[in-house]
User: Fold Fibronectin type-III domain-containing protein from Talaromyces rugulosus.
Amino acid sequence: MPAGAQYASPTPSTGRKETATQVSSLSIAAGQLAVPSAPPLETSNGTVIQLVTGGGNDTLQQSFVHDASNFKIKTRPRDELPRSVDEATLLRIRNEESVLKKRREEESPYTPVSDQMSPLKRGTGTPLLRRDRIKMMIVGDSISQGMEGDWTWRYRLWEWLKSQNEDFEFVGPWIGTRQSPDETKPPSPPEIFGEPVPEEAPLVSGGYADGVDSAFETKHFALWGRQAAEAKTEIKKMVEEYEPTYLLVLLGFNDLGWFVSGPEGTLASIKSIVDESRAANPNINIILGDVVQRSAIDFRADLPVITDQYNALLRAAVPKWNTAVSPVAMAFVRDTYGCETQACPSGHDGLHPNALGEFQIARAFSLALVYGFGIGTDSLSIPASVSGRPNPVPLNVMAYASPYGITVTWFKVYGARKYGVRSRYKGLTDWNEGTAFTNRFDNTWVIAGSHFEYQIRVDNEIDGTSDWSDIVDAIADPKTLQGPSTIHASPTENGVHVSWSAVDGAEFYAALLFDSDLPGAWLSVVGVRGLSYTWESQYVGHRHVVAVQAWNDIGGGLPTLGRNVIPGTTDAPTAPTNLYIDSVDATTVQLSWCGDCSDTSYKLYTRSLNTDLTNLSDWSGSDAGSAPATGVAYLVPGVWNYEFAVTALNGDLESPMSDGLQAYYPGYTRGGGECKKCTTPEPAPNDPVPETSPSVLPIVPVLGGGTDYKLHDCGEVKDKDGNEKDGRTLWRELGASAAWEDAVAYYNNGNKERQFSQTVASFFNASGLASTMDCRSLNVDNGCGDASIACENVNYPAGYVILNSMANLDALFFQLYSSITDASTDVWQDAEKISSTFNPPPPSDDTALFILGLVQNVWSMALSPGLGKVLTTTFGEAGKSKAFDKVNEFADIGFEKIGEAIGPVSNPVSTASAIQDQLHAVSTLWLNATDQINNAMFDGQQNSITNLREIIDDGGFMVRQGEGAFDMRAGTETPLYAQVIPLAWSYDRGDPPINPSGVFILDWETACKTDDDCPDNIDWLPNGAAKRTCHCYKENMYFLVQLWGSAESPGSYPSNTPSDNIFNEPPGLDDLDGRKWGGLTLVKFIEGSVNTYIANGRKNGYTPDFKDDEIMQAYVDEASDHNAVAPGVVQIPVCPPREAWDNWDEVYHGNPKSEHYPCN
Assistant:
């Protein structure tokens, strides 16, 4: 070939079909993370790879964020889950034993726990007995150990135990979180193949959040990456040495995530932990947490499925493992921790708990301790808001040339989860971003003279990031070795073999392999003392990039690229076909050809022919890249004097040469033909990751536990001072939850010949009560609500708690029933007084319809606030939502019963002949509804049993709710009178004949401070009426008035004198003195109506929604005032005088009344 001939940049030929362009080394390199010549891309580990040409050898320039304590030189993070069982096999995760070896030999190795323990032994292995002082050992993985700066759920549990005044301590071999390195180090060499890995101590000396109490007992047995498969071999020794009386175990995620074992195998490992613990202490108490979900990983659709499967197996196993001498309980961590595949607000990285998640996990274990073991009285409450980590900008950022490239350092930010690092060539605008896990970043694999700029920030993941630091810069001056001058790479049946030439001064080499066809693949690095290495178990058919790096005592230098390799065969490729030549001009040609899918690159061969201008020469070959096309320029004295041929390569395996083809004169083409379409192999699509959702916690948020109700006696009912313990304490300490389940099972197993309450009494051998304790019916002497059961009258103290709770609940409903009876009797018997005092409403269809409207609305106003107050008092602040839910369930039951009664046209209200009879019918409906609610508690149906359990659960109803709980009679009368009295005011008095009378609250739209500001007279009202009907409320003046006489034209306003056409005071105001009529007064009518008006957005026609917790809370808060001023109780319309006047005039002229007449 003539001197000076050069190969032009590859340009596709025109006028023919091409094979699909193969992936070039450059595109593979740029695909990991961009360099200045290409748009920036990045992998999750911040790797940058650039193809650089120089000195005759292609090299790989890489700059990656390096964490010496975690990754060493590996680019695959230690916590990156494998994609499949096959990949797990590639990672040498084959079974439980190889897992241990893999974790110790290939990643951060841990000394076996048994070898890490202090030589000072604490015990002799004698079985331990329960002691007064509680000794807890928390056994877990990273979720339990935490990382530097975490509070940890262990601390939140410790805080809660302290608040419960428990005598306890935490025990275990370790004290800290996982620490970040205190000293930053230069890049570490890769592990050398075939050489033992130095053992490293576990990372267990990290600190806690700055606000942690200095008294916190930090001891534990939890470690990042820990699996149940590992812990089961160590737990017996831990129990023997540290003598815990309680084990709190939260393991299993790593077993499932790393394919150590499936759900069944993971359960077997947990069972081994239970068995080995009991071998050391037959009386040990154990709480097992289930496995949390995590945010979706697109290549692990199986993970949420097998997690749910394991959790279901554990839930079924715990009751079987539970024994009286060594209780086992389950903590429902998964359903308490706020982490699902679609979102994980409780995790800082999609798995590990943030400050909120720590509270949630601690709460799950507190529930198990309270309900399963009687430790503590109130479970841990989760705060409404929790502060995240602070995000200060890193200080003292410095960049400087180092022997291996450029090093950037900064002051450590305590508790920072990681740092963001971004870099760029000086003079460019786009940044490449990566991540560092320590306060040092080493920009290696750079060329001498490269000038980079850097910025650093704190990255606390879900808790946010800091601002970027100021820009620093440095010029690289590496002292490391260049890569080998020669690299040979070839495919094997399932991998890649690579060999290389020696480099003077090299102590060892790093062989690098990258699967460019696998999205998200990690760069594989292995140290080698010799001059060759073979990778096995790679993906057959995938294109792999091969490189080799030389290491000396300074570090690793710039790697050299070998040829790309596709594993799967040891045969040479077939020769390319259909060579095509396009003579672009006299000295330039464009060539293309048909290759094969297994080709990784090509070589172009050229020779001059025997012509008038040239002599026949030997073939000269050179690399033509990975695409089946290239160009050649400067072919003097002319392209027609040259012949071309091509070979295909797979690594160093080369095909025979294609047929040679001579170029034609400029403007002409030769050769060509159809090519087989070849595409890069596409990986199988990942299965979609299913969305997950938590289950509703069971009534008793724990399975198993150590409170065997049959082992207690009545002497435990009272404290040391002889006072009866509170109901919650008795419920838990006496094992009432388990006793309830047994009583229900006794009923369901054929003992249904009597009422449910009687059967439960019989189960507890309360024979004297069994025949009379029928709690189902309220309107008879049922021997339930008035029962008083002594502990000595039952076989187990738990029965004393349960039967009294049932009786007290029945008594509450009987109190409600009686109060409705008394209140409704008062109201219907007062109907005559209502007529004589306020206005005589005649019995009519309109009256009946109005009163029918009262039945359900007033029912809610009477029932919901009072009962809500009782239940919120019983359940406590933490149970407020539960209390409101129960009240709504009760109201719905009553609504349904009332609806059935008033649904027909001929119903008890509409068929009554007088208003007294109509009101009496209302009271009868209410009584039936109340009886129906009570029946729904005690009728023995499964949903009724569940409802009953949810009400009496936790012993809150051990205290009888007496008459002082709230004034149920007044609470019933007030909303009824609040509706009936305005009904009387709103009827025509009959004088004069045309009287569209209506009561309303006149909004005078005048500011005021107190009632002393009320005037003696105003327009629209007779003299003196203003003072008697006025009230200053919310700094505005209102009047309770009604229409009086016949309306004039809207344009004619009344004078300030008494006449037929002026608003007036309703009759009977003097009688509203607060001592009768449900405590109603002029003030309450005005304030209640205005509150109703405002609650509806300053519109009339408001109906309270008792399913809204805020509205329900408002009614509960007003229960002491009989709810008269709560929105919705009083519904007299509110409007300014002109609005009422105009509506009055419309009716006077024959138009229908407005809906809230006389207001809009």
